[in-house]
Design a protein that fits this description.
By secondary structure, the chain is of the alpha+beta class. The protein has a single domain (8-245), classed as Sandwich (Jelly Rolls). Helices cover 22% and strands 27% of the residues. The protein is built from 5 helices and 16 strands. The strands form 4 sheets. Strands 1, 4, 5, 7, 12, 14, 15 and 16 form an 8-stranded antiparallel β-sheet that branches. It has a 4-stranded antiparallel β-sheet with strand order 6-13-8-11. A two-stranded antiparallel sheet has the order 2-3. Strand 15 (238-242) and strand 16 form a beta hairpin.
């Protein structure tokens, strides 16, 4: 897939762009199937631990299931697919590393909102912006709690600005924007992708529909993200592009 100059210009100016129907029907079916498998296992783990909250996940309300992708050969293939590496190459250049990946699931009727934040706000020190690729696994609507984005100009910020985030007691959400701008709702069909900077403010609404609202997102960086002491990795740093060439994971079916 070719990323257009207009999309790159929008990313640089506003912090994001959208690719409608980015993933194939087969990829969408796979991501949904694996999502349910991970949700079932995650709920079972919370029940075993006898907890209603685990990090920013809330039992039978919303789930953030991260760093499980390489347990699935199919997801590992998707993370280094031509789609994902083309997006990385167009924004990050010829070197790219997978920093994090996760499912974000809001349960029907009760799936809670998620506060205004920058993805970079979940790292406790200044770092270069990284890239988020957010894939809608369901048709996104205001009713089911879609993503809202706040372009740089409307947030009154520079593309590299990293704001202080405070943790909400009830949700464990980190919140960094307290203005009254509601943002732009992302109303896209299933299989679409929102590509945005880790500095872009975004939020999501509560799921008031009668079906689950599911998304899958992957985060990529141009170089490994280290901890604040520069001694160890902040999270992952799995090569997906080296010298412009796609890096196929070991054991891949590709």
């Amino acid at each position: 897939m070719s990323i257009s100059p207009q999309q790159i210009e929008q990313f640089n100016k506003e912090g994001y762009f959208i690719i409608e129907n980015a993933v194939t029907g087969q990829q969408l079916e796979m991501l949904r199937r694996e999502c349910q498998r991970y949700v079932d296992a995650f709920e079972a783990e919370m029940e075993r631990l006898d907890v209603n909250r685990l990090g920013i996940s809330h039992y039978k309300k919303r789930y953030f299931i991260d760093n499980r992708g390489y347990e699935s050969a199919e997801i590992a293939d998707f993370l280094t697919s031509e789609l994902m590496t083309d997006v990385c190459r167009s924004i990050l250049g010829d070197e790219a590393y997978l920093y994090n990946e996760q499912y974000v699931v809001k349960v029907a009727d009760v799936g809670t909102k998620f506060g205004w934040h920058q993805d970079s706000g979940y790292i406790d020190h200044y770092h270069d912006p990284f890239l988020t690729c957010w894939v809608a696994l369901d048709d996104m609507t205001v009713e089911n709690g879609t993503l809202y984005v706040l372009p740089y100009e409307r947030a009154k910020m520079h593309p590299t600005d990293l704001f202080e985030h405070m943790t909400e007691d009830q949700t464990n959400d980190k919140v960094g924007y307290y203005g009254d701008d509601p943002g732009i709702p992302v109303l896209v069909p299933a299989g679409s992708m929102v590509v945005f900077s880790s500095r872009l403010f975004h939020r999501s609404g509560a799921n008031q529909s009668h079906k689950m609202r599911r998304a899958y997102e992957a985060h990529y960086s141009a170089k490994p993200i280290m901890d604040k002491h520069e001694r160890r990795l902040q999270n992952k740093a799995v090569p997906v592009l080296q010298k412009g060439q796609r890096v196929v994971p070991a054991g891949s079916g590709v």
